[in-house]
Prior knowledge:
Elements: E1 3-7, E2 10-12, E3 18-25, E4 33-39, E5 46-51, E6 58-60, E7 68-73, E8 78-83, E9 92-99, E10 111-112, E11 116-120
Parallel strand pairs: 2-11
Antiparallel strand pairs: 1-3, 3-8, 4-5, 4-9, 5-6, 7-8, 9-10, 9-11
Amino acid sequence: QVQLVESGGGLVQPGGSLRLSCAASGRTFSSYVMGWFRQGPGKEREFVGYISASGYTTSYANFVKGRFTISRDNAKTTVYLQMNSLKPDDTGVYYCAADTTGGIQVDEYAYWGQGTQVTVSS
């Protein structure tokens, strides 16, 4: 069982940056693939990126490549999403998710946080 709590969301101007954190509880954090997803207004939840359990492998959706970076600190049982060059289309609720065999699909993750709101607007 893993509990996930996101933080770091807020209002930011276009071109700005935010860093989201996802703190996990549970004894086996280092065994989990950690994913980030987002859900914009009136849209379905979509894949943003994931990081492997070891942290050596990351994968990103095309629309965030070069702007977003995922990292993790297994000692702190926390995963991060650094978001740069933010655009209004990045607005939405951002969720972190965990699973031992996570990928790019929503249904590949068993555990989810409650989400944190990111609003990109001038």
